[in-house]
Amino acid sequence: MIGGTVAGLLGMVLGAPVLAAVLKSVAAVRCSRTVGRPDGTVGPAGTEGTVAAGDGA
């Protein structure tokens, strides 16, 4: 019973900072995926020089 109380208190104290860190990390990943490359295209890293279906190639 005491262990559950301690775990609950730790969860309440640490929950908000951990959630904020996760949300910030997710936003940073989304931002990095939408940044344009030097050739003017936009997409995930590692796909430079590839042609997607329907691009007229």
Q: What would you say about this model in short?
A:
With 57 residues, this protein is an all-alpha fold. It is built from 1 helix and no strands.
Structural class of the secondary elements?
mainly alpha
Largest sheet: none
Percent of residues in helices comes to 55-70%
- Sum up the overall morphology in one term: rod-shaped
The overall pLDDT, averaged over residues, is: 76
Strand % is under 5%
Rg on CA atoms, Å: 21 Å
Account of the 3D structure:
With 57 residues, the chain is an all-alpha fold. Helices cover 58% and strands 0% of the residues. The mean pLDDT is 76.
What features would you highlight for this structure?
57 residues, mainly alpha, 1 helix, rod-shaped
Question: How do the strands and helices of this protein lay out in sequence?
Answer:
Layout: H1 2-34
